[in-house]
Amino acid sequence: ALNHPWTKQDYLLLIVSCLVCNFDGIEMYMPGVVNQAISCELSLSYKQEGLLGVIMYIGIGLAVLCAGKLCSRYDRRLIILLSLYASIVFNILSAVIHNYLTLLLSRALIGITVGLNVNVVVIFLSEGVSSKQVGEKALSLLCLI
Known about the structure:
mainly alpha
């Protein structure tokens, strides 16, 4: 039923989408791993430790609300590139910060960039694929992730 060959652009779009989704998955996994070490180093209470763990998900929720409007107003490629660059900067900042409030702000901004990345990649992938191949390529993306 699916006799359409994949083009070079389809493969490139699939690989880039997979890399961005893997990058965001690692970003969401890492705070749970290093949260104990951070709480010991900064002498955080249980409330502060819990807020540090959940603030990124709050940022993701805020970004989901704004992603569609930003993508409609500006170019999707521009939004995803700015979001990836901002994510790199905020990750480097969160690695060297030794203050709780600035670390909290940095993790919230990382959450916003992760929320933008995921939404824009899904939109970008669905627009770049022909309507006859959406199911096949979406399944391939899920298998690669």
